[in-house]
Every structure is written in C-alpha cells, then in structure tokens.
TrEMBL record:
Keywords: Isomerase. It comes from the Bacteria. This is Tautomerase. It comes from Campylobacter cuniculorum DSM 23162 = LMG 24588. One of its GO terms (molecular function) is isomerase activity. PANTHER family: 2-HYDROXYMUCONATE TAUTOMERASE, TAUTOMERASE-RELATED. Belongs to the 4-oxalocrotonate tautomerase family.
Length: 74
C-alpha cells in the first residue's frame, strides 16, 4: 500500500479544500501511472504546517516573512 505524506505551509487561506483534493487526486494518479500502484489502496496525507511552527536560522518563518515584507515596503 503506497503511503504519501505531503507537508505544506498553511498561510493566506491556502491550501484550500479544492487544492488539497487536487493534490490527493494528482499524487494518487501519479503513483498509479509511474509505479503501477492500485489507486484504491493509495493513502495520501496532507499535513498543514503553520509558519509559527517551524523556523530557519533561529527565527520562525512567520517572523522571517514579516521582515521580508517590511523590507520590500521600504
């Protein structure tokens, strides 16, 4: 049974329910096409990660993106 875990940031209202449905269908189709896997037994899980919950260089992604946005406004 194929098991795929997609991790994606949740921000600005995305991913939408429709986008998640498209990801699930697309990944399932890709596994069926490339690896000849049974679609009925393919599991796709999407983990939505808040940008407060991970960081880079010692700062949260939320803080880094805000700093970048502020920099672009000046």
């Amino acid at each position: 049974m194929p098991f795929v875990n997609i991790r994606i940031t949740k921000e600005n209202g995305e991913p939408t329910t429709e986008q998640k449905e498209e990801l699930i269908a697309g990944v399932t189709d890709l596994l069926a096409k490339v690896l000849n896997k049974n679609k009925a037994s393919t599991v796709v899980i999407i983990d939505e990660i808040c940008t407060d919950n991970y960081g880079l260089g010692g700062q949260s992604i939320t803080k880094l993106r805000k700093a970048q946005k502020d920099k672009n406004l000046t």
